[in-house]
């Protein structure tokens, strides 16, 4: 197959889409023989002028509006859609699973002892509504009291940033505390943090806030820094590029079965680095586990730093956290290993050493027992 001309209609204005582009770039470098057309654009922007006279072989687009969808329908080339909005039917599409994203959020809050939780969505995005529905079901199943709020769509003609900010402020005033709030994406979580600042609400002591997308520019500039769910955007972009390659090669692919990737976990930062547990000894135990999980600690090490017997620790820990101290130690260690595998270039051996394993084989066996994958398979 000769060099193919591919148009990328993916905004460069947010971390999620930049991650998608990194995946496409990785595919092109490894396997693609493409001439790529990409211009800087914002989310929901009109199709670029150059597309009018473009004559190419395939398109990867984030089709977020009917306008873009109607324009792309005119092209008789393979298209892969990177949006869950589904403005163009009959083309394959890729996304991160909303149910898994919501579950990570609920689990993150429950693990920190929150029983009052909330979801703040954006009415303009179908995926936001789906996440909210999953969040409600999952948090209810976890015996949490759930509160919800939906802003006017960010790209709605009636949207006014300051008006929406005041609506969020009024909503926050009605919520019990302590409470943990999940924003549908990092921009929404940033608005919640700003509303807390205006109300002089302590974050995370009174209100813990979690975003989605792990957009580093937003998360690190927030005050306090914003914890966020990490989507595997690089893999999504890579798989979408591979799908387009197969389509341009003449392969028939399913158009209504989405290419779904799983989120990688939660990037913990200051906005949720807290424990909403009234039992002071269990809070101390959790804090010790999270600070020292890299050191290959045992339950006995935890007991030396609290004033409880092993039996009392086991009973009260399970009551407040939902599982045993040993299971919590394993959970925290495995999550740290996942982060190091996905976010660093450290070798498997270096990660094992950093996580306190005497032999890399011990870590690999423990990781596979917990996840069903070897560290190498997980890293992909």
Automatic annotation (TrEMBL):
SUPFAM superfamilies the record matches:
Homeodomain-like (SSF46689), Periplasmic binding protein-like I (SSF53822)
Please report the organism this UniProt entry assigns to the protein: Rhodopirellula sallentina SM41
Write down the superkingdom of origin.
Bacteria
Query: Per its record, how is this protein called by name?
Result: Xylose operon regulatory protein
InterPro entries in UniProt:
Homeodomain-like_sf (IPR009057), HTH_AraC (IPR018060), LacI/GalR-like_sensor (IPR046335), Peripla_BP_I (IPR028082), XylR_PBP1 (IPR054031)
- Listed GO molecular functions? DNA-binding transcription factor activity; transcription cis-regulatory region binding
Q: Which UniProt keywords apply?
A: DNA-binding, Transcription, Transcription regulation
A Pfam family that the UniProt record links to this protein: PBP1_XylR
- The question of whether Aminoacyl-tRNA synthetase is a record keyword is answered with no
Query: Does the record's keyword annotation contain Transcription regulation?
Result: yes
Where the record annotates domain HTH araC/xylS-type, the positions are: 283-380
């Amino acid at each position: 197959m000769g060099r193919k001309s591919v148009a990328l209609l993916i905004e460069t204005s947010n971390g999620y889409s930049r991650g998608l582009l990194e995946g496409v770039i990785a595919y092109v470098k490894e396997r693609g023989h493409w001439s790529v057309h990409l211009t800087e654009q914002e989310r929901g922007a009109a199709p670029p002028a150059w597309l009018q006279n473009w004559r190419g072989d395939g398109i990867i687009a984030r089709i977020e509006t009917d306008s873009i969808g109607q324009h792309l329908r005119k092209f008789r080339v393979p298209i892969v859609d990177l949006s869950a909005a589904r403005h163009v039917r009959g083309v394959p599409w890729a996304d991160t699973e909303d149910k898994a994203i919501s579950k990570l959020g609920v689990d993150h809050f429950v693990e920190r002892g929150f029983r009052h939780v909330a979801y703040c969505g954006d009415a303009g995005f179908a995926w936001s509504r789906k996440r909210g529905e999953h969040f409600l079901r999952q948090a209810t199943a976890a015996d949490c009291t759930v509160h919800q709020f939906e802003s006017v769509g960010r790209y709605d003609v009636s949207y006014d940033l300051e008006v929406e900010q005041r609506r969020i402020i009024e909503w926050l005033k009605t919520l019990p505390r302590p409470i943990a709030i999940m924003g549908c994406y990092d921009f929404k979580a940033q608005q919640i943090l700003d509303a807390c600042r205006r109300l002089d609400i302590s974050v995370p002591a009174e209100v813990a806030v979690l975003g989605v997308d792990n957009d580093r520019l937003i998360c690190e500039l927030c005050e306090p820094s914003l914890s966020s769910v990490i989507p595997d955007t690089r893999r999504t972009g890579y798989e979408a590029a591979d799908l387009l390659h197969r389509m341009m090669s003449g392969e028939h692919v399913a158009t209504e079965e989405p290419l779904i990737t799983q989120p990688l976990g939660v990037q913990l930062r200051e906005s949720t680095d807290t424990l909403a547990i009234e039992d002071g000894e269990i809070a101390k135990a959790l804090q010790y586990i999270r600070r020292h999980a890299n050191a290959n600690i045992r339950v006995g090490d935890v007991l030396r730093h609290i004033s409880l017997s092993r039996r009392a620790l086991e009973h009260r820990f399970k009551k407040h956290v939902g599982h045993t101290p040993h299971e919590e130690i394993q959970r925290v260690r495995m999550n740290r290993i996942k982060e190091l595998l996905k976010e660093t270039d450290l070798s498997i051996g270096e990660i094992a050493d950093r996580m306190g394993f005497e032999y890399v084989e011990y870590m690999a066996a423990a990781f596979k027992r917990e996840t069903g994958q070897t560290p190498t398979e997980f890293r992909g």
